[in-house]
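Just scan my protein:

. . .
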Amino acid sequence: MRLLRLATAIAIGWLAASHANAGDGKGFRLTIDGVQVGINPGDTLEVTTKDGRKVQVELQRSDTVTFTGAKFSFDHDGKFTVAKTDLGDGVQQYALMTPMGTGIIIQVYKGLNPSSNTDVMLQQMVQESITGGAKISKHATERTLPSGSVLKGVKAETITDDDVMEYEIVATGRPEGGVLIATFLNKENIPKEGVILDKLWSTLKVDF
């Protein structure tokens, strides 16, 4: 049986996502009447079109964005980006990471139901912390989505002298495929970033 895998370049993918030509340091390219300019969210620019007209353009991020992947969708804050990684063997991974270290990982599998492998994913995620001396506690958990679908898995905490990390890994599927969702955040960041995970669970749709 194939084991669930966790991409090692999640953060790298997040940093690289949505970046445009690095020449002018702008994050996006905007084309108006064939004229291309670099622009960042919040910028207001005056663009001269090919016929000499001057037009003012502004780029703003949406407060909430709906990300749609293979067999799932969820809402997230517009200032974040979801990075996609092909892990091979029919496994697609989607990851959202914040600068504070809160993360959402969604893996979509073909030909494998990941429902019984949430503990394997947890082990991969906490292995480095445990090796470094962290203590772990865990228990079974489940999530009921707005559609009524129930995802089952495991919830855990790793505790060190410096911090407490919270993990949740749940999954659903059939023999022909499935979806696994993993979240993690530092417990001290719940007041600031717990809303990110709340939005995930209140809007997540899974087609399995």
In short: Helices lie at 10-16, 118-131, 190-203. Residues 8-22 have pLDDT under 50 and may be disordered. The CA atoms of residues 97 and 152 lie 23 Å apart.
